[in-house]
Amino acid sequence: MDTKAVKHKPGNRRISTLNPSLLFIESYKILRSNLLSSLVAETSGNIIMVTSPNAGEGKTTVCANLAIATAQTRSEVLIIDADMRRPAQHKVFNIPNDKGLSSLLRGVAKTNNCIRKIYPCLHLLPAGPAPPNPSELLASDQIDRLLTQLGETFKYIFLDTTSIDNVADSLVLAGKPVGTLLISRYGKTTYDGISTALEKLEHSGAKLLGLVVNGKGRRKNNTRYSLLSDYEKIK
Ligand SMILES: Nc1ncnc2c1ncn2[C@@H]1O[C@H](COP(=O)(O)OP(=O)(O)OP(=O)(O)O)[C@@H](O)[C@H]1O
Ligand SMILES: [Mg+2]
C-alpha cells in the first residue's frame, strides 16, 4: 500500500466548507453507529455498498463522510470507488485517478500501487481509467477475489456505486456478500423511486442495511453539506 499520506485539499466540487457544524458531525456519528449496529445484526460482513435510486442523490458525499466518521473509531477503512462511469471519490480527496479499481480488474496494476492513504486509518481505491465494460468487470470473478482479499485487510469497506435507475452495476454488486445502504435526497427522490429501487435490490439478493435521507433540514449557507475533514474533532 502507498503509505504516503495524501494531504487533503478539497477539490473544486461538492465541498462547501472545511468547518463542518456540530450538527453535521453529529448526524454522521449517529449514522455511523446505526450502520455498524445493522452490520452486526444482519451479519452481512464488513463491506457496505452505497447506492441510490437515481443519479445525484448524494451517494459519493455520504459514502466519503461515513467512511471518514468510521475511520475516526481507529478502524482501518477503505473506500472503493466502484462507480467507474462517473468516478468522483478521487476528486473529493484530490488524488489522481490514473490507476484504480478498473486497473485491478483488468489485471494491469497491483493492489498496493492503487490504494492511497488519505488520513490515518482511511484509504481510497479510486475508480481508475473508464473501462468500456463496467458491468462485466463488476460481475467478474476478479472482483469477488479482490473484495475477499481487501475484506480481510480492512475492518470496513465502503463501496461508492452508480445509481440503480439505468445501469446494472450496483445491482450486480448488491448480489455479492455486501450490505446495501440506500441514499435518497430530500425533496428530490420520490416514494415510487424508493419503492422501485427496493424491489430491484430485493430481486438482486441485496442485504439492505438502511435508508438515508440526505439533505433534510438543509438551509441556505448551512454547513451540513461538507466533508468531515476536520479529522481530529469528530472522534
Ligand atoms: N446534503 C446535501 N446538501 C446540499 N447539496 C448536496 C447534498 N448532498 C449532495 N449535494 C450536492 O449534490 C451533488 C451530487 O452529490 P453526489 O455527487 O454526492 O451525488 P451522487 O449520488 O454520488 O451523484 P452521481 O449519481 O453523479 O454519482 C453534489 O455536487 C453536491 O453539490
Ligand atoms: Mg457519485
Keywords:
Rossmann fold, 7-stranded mixed beta sheet, 9 helices, 7 strands, disordered C terminus, binds adenosine-5'-triphosphate, binds magnesium ion
Could you please describe the fold and organization of this structure?
With 235 residues, the chain is an alpha/beta fold. It has a single domain (22-225), classed as Rossmann fold (3-Layer(aba) Sandwich). The chain contains nine helices and seven strands. A seven-stranded mixed sheet has the order 3-4-2-5-1-6-7, with helices on both faces. Strand 3 and strand 4 form a beta hairpin. Residues 59-60, 83, 86, 88, 160 line the site of magnesium ion.
Task: Provide a compact summary of the structure.
The chain has 235 residues and is α/β, with parallel strands linked by helices. It has helices spanning 22-42, 59-71, 89-92, 101-105, 111-114, 134-139, 141-153, 169-174, 191-203; strands at 47-51, 77-81, 116-119, 122-125, 156-160, 179-185, 207-214. Residues 13-14, 52, 55-61, 83, 86, 88, 163, 214-215, 218, 224-225 line the site of adenosine-5'-triphosphate.
